[in-house]
Amino acid sequence: MPIIRAEVAIVGDSQVGKTSLINSFCGDGTKQQKQTSPTMYPELHTKKIKIPDTNYQVELIIIDTPSHRLALPLAARTIAESKFLLLVINGQDKNAQDGARQFLSFFRDSTTIDKPKGVLVQNYSFEGNEVMNEEQLQAFGTSMGLVASRVSAQNGKDIDLPFMMIAQAAYNLHKKTEGK
To answer: Where are the transmembrane segments (predicted)?
Structure first.
């Protein structure tokens, strides 16, 4: 079975659930039971995803980035080769859009990719308390050149979806470049 490798940088403000999302996805897919400590250094995780209706697998090399301003230079060097972005925002934070724009700029500057392929992920703890409804989230994602998805790392809801979207994008890119 052919394997496509794709580096994915996960960025976003502190305490938005980046590490919880990764742990839920790379673990057994259940909701997170414990509070995680802030990420101080970039951490690597991997998981293979089978692409439906193909014999391909995509191995996601997931880079959990710290968001503290003192750690950003190290994070920038670590994600420099990333081709895909997963930008996580807090679904209950009315200032999340400002932070998202800053982290998108950080990714662009770190990778020199002007129009990154990726997913804007709205992580929420309590359904119904999101600042942006689905339509607003999709419009905001589109304005940033990203597709959007809503998940709850705390409740284990839809955590696979953004990673599957990235895996599919990596497969599509591979097939496109393979045909040239």
So the answer is: none
Structure tokens at 106: 């950080």
**Domain spans of the chain, in order of start:** 19-126+140-178
Identify whether the C-beta of residue 170 lies closer than 8 Å to the C-beta of residue 4: yes
This prediction's pTM: 0.90
Q: What is the mean pLDDT of residues 16-44?
A: 77
**Rounded Cα–Cα distance for residues 4 and 15 (Å):** 31
pLDDT, tens digit (0-9, with 9 covering 90-100), for 83-127: 999 999 988 888 899 999 999 999 999 999 999 999 999 988 766
What residues contact 7, with CB distance under 8 A and at least 6 apart? 61, 63, 79, 81, 82, 83, 84
The owner of tokens 């607003």 is 136
Second-level CATH architecture of 19-126+140-178: 3-Layer(aba) Sandwich (3.40)
